[in-house]
Amino acid sequence: DTAVSQTPKYLVTQMGNDKSIKCEQNLGHDTMYWYKQDSKKFLKIMFSYNNKELIINETVPNRFSPKSPDKAHLNLHINSLELGDSAVYFCASSQITQGSHGNTIYFGEGSWLTVV
Amino acid sequence: DAKTTQPNSMESNEEEPVHLPCNHSTISGTDYIHWYRQLPSQGPEYVIHGLTSNVNNRMASLAIAEDRKSSTLILHRATLRDAAVYYCILRRHRTGTASKLTFGTGTRLQVTL
After folding, report:
1. A51-73: per-residue pLDDT in tens?
2. B73 exposed, middle or buried (CB, 10 Å; 0-12, 13-18, 19+)?
3. B80 in contact with A at a CB cutoff of 8 Å?
């Protein structure tokens, strides 16, 4: 069973379109994340949700809107796509528990977005 | 999060041990040292983490300097499947709160026959 699964794996779309990437985790974690890896391979956090509440919101354009219908899902909606949005988007999850000291983060396999 | 410094790339022969260094001279007392790796076309994968003492798990060992200003990830016998980018990351942990992973450029490990 895939622990953190993302769909679609590949997405090619035109500038100006609106698209969504879905993410689900079956690990029972209470926290989920979206990371972006650009063409230079830098991985940066975009958002984090804990029990459906936004807790980390890095400097990301308003065109990006995460939505968490429940703690097992965190979807990423992108409006008015631009060429610079082309990247690999990784969903991830972890468990924040009292006394945990590692908060290992588990990543999905990524969604390759290409904007043309 | 405090910064880490790693070599851009390293090479190893298969079946030989690999020592991947990481410097983190500005580490604070509550920073855990985490290592993740990213295989080609995959998401990052947890390898190991530690605070002060050396750590071992089925994937690797983590040796932490006494002053905690550096650490070394040890792969005891490198295989071709270990070819990846290895990231050394400091995470300031506060119980009950999320802490993000701040990735640097990592070390690209090449493993050859």
Report:
1. 888 888 887 899 999 999 998 99
2. buried
3. no
